[in-house]
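The pair is quoted verbatim as follows:
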Amino acid sequence: MLQYYGADPEFSLEGKTAVITGGAAGIGYETAKFFAKKGVNLVLADLNPGVDEIAKELDPKAVGIAGDVTNGAYRQSVVDLGVKQFGQIDILVNCAGIVALEKAELISESDWDRTMNINLESSFMMAQLLGKYFIDNHVNGSIVNIASQAGVIALDKHVAYCAAKGGIIAMTKVMALEWGKYGIRVNAVAPTVVLTELGHKAWDGPAGDAFKKEMPSERFAEPDEVAGVIAFLCSNAAGMITGHNLLIDGGYTIK
């Protein structure tokens, strides 16, 4: 069951170990940076061959392992590295993802499959792998899956992305339902546009300005705002939150 550890006002994560996929850039990197400041041991998984160096810039104890998260052997090697380096894994943050922008009648089968494989299937398989690890080792683990506002509303030219992110929200709920009895919490966060390097490239300019006018916040999210929510969900302060999809959208989806 989900045990009560006290509503920790510090949102402490000190000494926990987190696996973060897509950890060398974007939301994954910002989450790793936030976690490092909270005393979390880091295991970063990313395609970037320099991911280990990136990890060690955040914390000399941190480790990174380069590879393709859609590959089962690679996923297992990430878990094995985390256990070998730190003795136990407590947290998984599934950040790896891509976007293929195309109209529904035009998107190619390969772009559809690649979006599903990276965004949805690899997130499920990584969560399944860590879920089994948590159950077998009696770890009260926490999993946070990165969904999107695109998982709850329709966005033009985002058919594959919307489908994958909607799937992430659904799988999050099922995992939370099934694994709560083991003390495992599974949640999702669903950001709007986040001003990572890619976010700036895609949305700086007139299109972004028009989009922001539709949002009550009148601005996009900063990466550390998403990382802070993830850290909260992984802390004991969120001990009764599971199966939830937390929108970080400046009110965009309330319309």
About this structure: The domain at 17-195+223-249 is CATH 3.40.50.720 (Rossmann fold). The longest strand covers residues 185-191. DSSP finds eight helices and seven strands in the chain.
